[in-house]
Amino acid sequence: MAVVLDARDLNKRFGAVTAANGVSAAIEQDSVVGLIGTNGAGKTTFINMITGYIKPDTGSIHFRGRDITALAPREITRVGICRSFQIPQLYASLSVFENMMVSLGVVLRNAGLGGFFSRGRPNVPGYDAPAEEVAERILERFGLGDYRDKNAQVLPGGVRKLLDIALTMAAKPSILLLDEPTSGVSAEEKFGMMEMVMAAVKAEGATVLFVEHDMEVVSRFAERVLAFYDGRIIADAAPEIALTDPEVKRYVVGGELHRMDEQKGAANA
Amino acid sequence: MSNITPRDRTLPMLGAVLLAVIVLGPLLPKWALFLLTIAIAKGMVSLGLMLQLRAGLVSFGQALYYCIGGYTAGSLGRFFDISDMLLQMICGASAAAFVALILGFLLARYRGIFYGLLSMALSMILYGLLAKSESLGSTDGINILPSTIFGIRPVQEWVRYVVLVTGCSVAALAAALVQRYLKTPLGQLSPAIKDNEIRVEYMGASARKAIHVKYVIAAALSGIGGALAATAVGHIDPDMAYWTTSGEFIFITILAGTRSVAAPFLGAILFETIRTVAFDISPNTWQMTLGISLLLVIVFLPEGLWSLFSRRKAA
């Protein structure tokens, strides 16, 4: 399959800390890639470099053959790479529907539509419908219809996560980066939520990279796993192979089990 | 209730108010015509402040553009013998917008108190320059030529009425254009910028550019206001750029609220009325009366005067 995103030999240091040490990965179109690793292993740094929030010290990132290493976040969004956030980034004073409308408005504007002198309601690029209809459609797909007129500030945690991801769908991204989509969501709700998100994302035909700590979620949804440790990718394979790799077991999965034990301990205390 | 677009009934209402001014204007006493004209001029500046406030920015220096508008009108008369009101307003708006376009590259990088104080500093620089400039009358200022419109000089009895109607027409047009702007994706971005600039950037929009555009529009509106005030008063001086003038505009904007493009004008009319009445009743304590009235609005109508109207409609 065609490679859409090609990261080559990315290096990034923050003072004495090496956050990326020769990270290379070629992501194929329509694939679902899980990024795993303990805290500080370099997953989010990898995502932040792809989305332009931080620039690598050396190395390059190509999207469909175009070098995007030096672009600003908004320019990277415009080429078709969107991200969600570990802590949902919403417009707190606006309703769920208005959050969606603002995002679709930006998409219209970037396409040169809906300006001061334009008449009528233009169709959102890629959706063939006006913004209001597209907003309803996306909200429905993410199960947010019931929250339509609720203020974003008062939404429950899981719903905030869903809205955060739904907002990224406005631009109909080619590549979607989800930073811990299920963190802060209860264990029972995780699978349902991931299924809904994956169905919605796949319906729009996006390539997905997601950061995840729950290995069950990873093995169920990822087609390919990139395991990070100490700023390096220590395994790059299908989940059943990557998750049984001795190094991954030692540095990532073991770490995650330990982490989960700690959380349970904290919950019981 | 929508936060991202003000309600739609604004336009017919603007038209109705304009018609009322045209019809009822001749019945009003001269002092009321003058008060309304000044209120409309200040309402224009406040409309510009409202645009910025919707994006979470407060300019403590909007008087800069009010003053540029006023001095543009004055200079047209002094150096080019041009006394046409509309031409003065157009040139005032253009000069203000041009200066804002340049200063905007600097201002749009700042947020919060830094944006406010930097804008105030720029305004005080103009004040200082004008106070020292002999050719523009230094601290005494200069007089404005008697107003004309389309080459016609209204008879003395009707001057105030003509100035008011011209000002109201321009203000109604400006408010309608701002209303349209607020409905565009760029206009709707304001509350989003206020809430979460990170998300705005990751949606693919530039918050800085959006703020720059708002800053320029606000300056053009203030420039019109300044030119209108100059025409109405017949005199301009550097105090137009002084920081207390900017303070008045913020006062009006907070009084009015950001819910409608008509709100700033209502706020300005109330402000001028309270000030005139308070000054008439007790010349030594009028500031206190103004302060108390703002306090009452903040406590009982936290979203400004306009919430009186929208609440009643919602009920």
Core attributes:
heterodimer, A: alpha/beta, Rossmann fold, 2 domains, 4-stranded antiparallel beta sheet, B: 315 residues, mainly alpha, 13 helices
Explain this structure.
The complex is a heterodimer of chains A (269) and B (315). Chain A has helices at 43-50, 73-79, 96-110, 131-141, 157-169, 187-203, 215-221, 239-242, 246-268, and strands at 3-14, 17-28, 32-36, 58-63, 66-67, 81-83, 175-179, 207-211, 224-229, 232-237. Chain A is α/β, with parallel strands linked by helices. Chain A folds into two domains: 3-90 and 155-204 and 217-268, P-loop containing nucleotide triphosphate hydrolases (Rossmann fold); 91-154, no CATH class. In chain A, the strands form two sheets. In chain A, strands 6-7-8-3-9-10 form a six-stranded mixed β-sheet, with helices on both faces. Chain A has a four-stranded antiparallel β-sheet with strand order 2-1-4-5, with helices on one face. Chain A starts with a strand and ends with a helix. Chain B has helices spanning 10-24, 30-54, 63-80, 85-107, 112-132, 159-183, 185-195, 197-202, 207-233, 243-256, 263-281, 286-300, 307-314, and strands spanning 142-143, 235-236. Chain B has one domain. The model of chain B has no long low-confidence stretch (mean pLDDT 90). Chain B has a two-stranded antiparallel ribbon. Chain B is mainly α. In chain B, α6 runs antiparallel to α9. The chains are: A alpha/beta (269), B mainly alpha (315). Chain A binds chain B through residues 51, 72-75, 77-78, 82-83, 89-95, 98, 101-103, 105-110, 114-116, 167-168, 170-171, and chain B through 2-4, 180-181, 184-186, 188-189, 191-192, 194-196, 198-206.
Largest sheet of chain A: 6 strands, mixed
- Number of discrete domains of chain A: 2
Separation of the first and last Cα atoms of chain B: 12 Å
Query: What is the number of domains of chain B?
Result: 1
Shape of chain B: globular
By secondary-structure content and strand pairing, the structural class of chain A works out as: alpha/beta
- What is the general shape of chain A? globular
Predict the CATH topology of the largest domain in chain A. Rossmann fold
Strand order within the widest beta sheet of chain B: 1-2
* Helix content estimate of chain B: over 70%
Reading the helices and strands of chain B in chain order gives HHHHHEHHHHEHHHH
What percent of residues of chain B are in strands? Answer: under 5%
Give the SSE order of chain A as H and E letters.
EEEHEEHEHHHEHEHEEHH
